TrEMBL record:
Domain Glycosyl hydrolase family 59 catalytic: 45-338
Originating species: Macrostomum lignano
One annotated GO molecular function: galactosylceramidase activity
Protein name: galactosylceramidase
Keywords: Disulfide bond, Glycoprotein, Glycosidase, Hydrolase, Lipid degradation, Lipid metabolism, Signal, Sphingolipid metabolism
Record lineage: Eukaryota, Metazoa, Spiralia, Lophotrochozoa, Platyhelminthes
GO cellular component term of the entry, any: lysosome
């Protein structure tokens, strides 16, 4: 068994420092430099989110009995209770099949306008009801044919497309009192430089300067234009990539823009799916500098015989019985979301976050005043944390002791709250998720922690976390047949 020493070292504006190093009993040493905490947009934590859409993934949720429906929504959105999500990303319905089904557009035709179609308006309001600070992100997966004026591309008539998106934003505000924080361009399709510039101008002119554009929602390709087109760079707030495999491109890093995994996970929500999500939540930052990770999808409220069944934080696809399942990925989310808030900062990779010497990773986060500290460790093994995409190169993880040395701004910390998940892949042995442990005492700025394989640990000064629990959901039942419906 290896023993590692972590000495957290960071320079703050106040002159405090936190050094980080590793040392094992074989006298191999890894030292991480005492880099400064860079408090800018690229290192700020923008939160953990999940997606409703792409498409019709939340379809059955609204049909649940109110009691169970409210419980499900509490598990997803209520602060310090369950997933406690910081961000909700929704599909801007486009009247087209977009994975699990079709979501209705607010404008079937150029002369049509209806802000009561679908369920994303309702879902955003329910999220805001539980967490007024949750941020909202809209993205089209498809567009009605009229937007392209009969062509196959919404970019052929960019003014028409920008107006269509603007109408959705205005409807959110005027009819539902919802403020949209972020907009994407077109899910996993080519972006268009002229359209991005124009959309920015249209939003600004209409009084929506607060809305930030996340460009890409595919790969890191837009980074090239950000580096070479000042107007496009000014219009782009963040670069968003899907399923980046915890890596970002060199060009993307050079832009200085926030980098997001704007869609990730998409893995069956069993223990392996939990391991996948735990691993990438840490390593998206450690390996790729990504400061927000957004899971597809929020809740599997669609039937199991559709594509990508149960690739979600939890499952709710039996409204007739009221049965739902709170699954592991939801508690993996809580290991970060209940201990850090948007506006905090990641401690830099190589200066407060990084890879563990015997496998696994850790990330450190601190608030803007460097008064609070959260460290999340994960030691997920390769075979127990493979996501559905992309392929995962082989690696090994071994049990290890980690000695943590706190210095500088954190030297006065005497106790860290301790939460732990242990994933078991042995037959007959259940995993334990998000279990509160006795607080760890810090003596002279130092403590030692044993990390086995396939565990997630959060150490934090934040005392407000809880493992929320509502009443037991009703048992699962088959769909009630015979069944009839007049579709009204």
């Amino acid at each position: 068994m290896k023993s590692a020493v972590i000495f957290l070292a960071l320079f703050f504006a106040s002159g405090h420092s936190i050094h980080l190093s590793f040392e094992n009993k074989f006298n191999s040493k890894i030292r991480i430099s005492d880099e400064s905490v860079i408090k800018n947009a690229a290192s700020m934590f923008y939160g953990i989110g999940a997606i409703s859409g792409g498409g019709a993934t939340s379809k059955l949720l609204q049909n649940y009995p109110q009691n169970q429906r409210d419980q499900i929504l509490d598990y997803l959105f209520l602060p310090n209770f369950g997933a406690s999500l910081h961000m909700l990303k929704v599909e801007i319905g486009g009247d087209s099949q977009s994975t699990e089904g079709t979501e209705a557009s607010h404008m079937h035709h150029s002369w049509d306008l209806n802000y009561n179609r679908g369920y994303e308006w309702w879902l955003m309001k329910e999220a805001k009801k539980r967490n007024p600070n949750i941020t909202l992100y809209g993205l089209p997966w498809a567009f009605p044919g009229w937007v392209g004026n009969g062509t196959s591309s919404p970019y052929n008539y960019p003014s028409l497309t920008a107006k269509y998106v603007l109408k959705w934003v205005q409807g959110a505000k005027d009819y539902h009192n919802l403020t949209i924080d972020y907009l994407g361009i077109w899910n996993e399709r080519a972006y268009d430089v002229e359209y991005v510039r124009l959309l920015r101008a249209v939003l600004d002119h209409a009084g929506f300067k607060n809305i930030r554009l996340v460009v890409g929602d595919g790969d890191w390709g837009p980074a090239h234009d950000v580096l070479n087109d000042p107007q496009f760079a000014a219009a782009t707030f963040a670069l968003g990539a899907h399923y980046p495999g915890t890596l970002s491109s060199n060009e993307a890093k050079r832009t200085g823009k926030p980098l997001w995994a704007s869609e990730d996970f998409s893995t069956f929500n069993d223990d392996i799916g939990s391991g996948c999500w735990a691993r990438i939540l840490n390593r998206n930052f450690v390996d790729g500098g990504m400061t927000s990770s957004i899971a597809w999808n929020l809740v599997a409220a669609y039937y199991d015989n559709l594509p990508f069944p149960r690739c979600s934080l939890m499952t709710a696809n039996e409204p007739w019985s009221g049965h739902y399942e709170v699954t592991g990925p939801l508690w993996m989310t809580a290991h970060t979301s209940q201990f850090a808030l948007p506006g905090w900062y990641y401690l830099p990779a190589g200066g407060g976050s990084g890879r563990l010497p015997s496998g696994g990773s850790y990330v450190g986060l601190t608030d803007s005043n460097t008064k609070q500290l959260t460290i999340i460790f994960e030691t997920m093994s390769h075979d127990h944390s493979e996501c559905i995409r992309p392929s995962l190169p082989p690696y090994t993880v071994k049990p290890q002791n980690v000695t943590i040395k706190l210095a500088g701004a954190f030297a006065s910390i005497t106790q860290l709250y301790y939460w732990k998940s242990v994933l078991s892949y042995k037959k007959g042995v259940s995993s334990s998720y998000f279990v509160k442990q006795s607080p760890l005492q810090v003596k002279s700025g130092q403590l030692t922690l044993f990390l086995d394989v396939d565990v997630v640990v959060t150490l934090s000064t934040v005392a407000t976390a809880t493992k929320g629990q509502r009443s037991q959901p009703p048992p699962s039942k088959p769909f009630p047949l015979p069944y009839s419906d007049n579709f009204q």
